[in-house]
Amino acid sequence: MIIAVDGPTASGKGTIAKALAVHFKLPHLDTGLLYRAVGRQVQLNSGNPEDPRDALAGCAFPGALLEDEALRSEETGGFASRVSVHPVVRQALFERQRTFAMQPGGAVLDGRDIGTVIAPEAEIKLFITASVTERAKRRWLEMQGRELDLDLREIEDDIARRDARDIGRADAPLKAAPDALVIDTTHFGRDQAVEAAIEAAEEALSR
Ligand code: C5P
Fold first, then answer.
1. Could you give the number of structural domains in the chain?
2. Helices 152-168 and 74-83: crossing angle, nearest 10°?
3. Which of 38, 42, 165, 204 has its CA 20 to 30 A from that of 57?
């Protein structure tokens, strides 16, 4: 069984995907991490994320980079969003994600285009969303927890910019698959969001 969890940054999709993986005893892949690793590698190479050749070179990142704390920073998120517009980058990362999705027994993947491009045949497709203001607040709290004092307004602007880039790109834009269940977590706490997703997934399975 394949479970696709898509949605914008800080919508709660990662938390939900992890909880679904535990609930259904499936392996989980955070595909955003792959794009973050490419973005980080381009940065380490002093490359230009807007240049498709530099972005493609970033796809040769070493596996150990996936464990790097720096991947979780806002800055790397911005680089990831910029390299992810290039079709060559999406193509380079496709096989790895597809193979993970198709493993025997199934898997949970979260990202932007899992239900639309990577695994359109997924039995369960969820699209997790929340208002920009709420997502900025969550990201700000997360950064505070890591003792990073960032400006809330700046985070909100950054998220809005990233959303626009992810939604507006020609190749695999961020959008809900027509058969995805949309869950708005704006007014949900963590547990409520997870509960709503598990309920939606169980209901989709019983149909
Ligand atoms: O989900 P996360 O914020 O870690 O993703 C970082 C960036 O990677 C996103 O802003 C998006 O541009 C890109 N991404 C993507 N397709 C995916 C996952 C992430 O384009 N499946």
1. 1
2. 20
3. 165
CATH number of the structural domain spanning residue 45: 3.40.50.300
Residue ranges with strand state E in the chain: 2-6, 28-30, 107-111, 124-129, 181-184
Mean per-residue pLDDT for 95-107?
97
Q: How far apart are CA 192 and CA 199, in angstroms?
A: 10
Characterize 107-139 residue by residue with b for buried, 16 or more Cβ atoms within 10 angstroms of its Cβ, and e for exposed: bbbbbbbbbbbbbeebebbbbbbbebebbbbbb
Distance 191 CA to ligand 1 centre (A): 24
Query: What is the predicted pLDDT for the residue at 93?
Result: 98
Ligand 1 centre from 9 Cα, in Å?
7
Q: Which ranges of 103-189 does DSSP label H, i.e. alpha helix?
A: 132-145, 152-168
The range of the structural domain enclosing residue 178 comes to 2-206
pLDDT of residue 1: 96
Would the CB of 35 count as within 6 Å of ligand 1?
yes
Task: For CA atoms 29, 33, 35, 37, give the dihedral sign.
Answer: negative
Average pLDDT over residues 36-43: 98
170: buried, middle or exposed (CB in 10 Å: 19+, 13-18, 0-12)? exposed
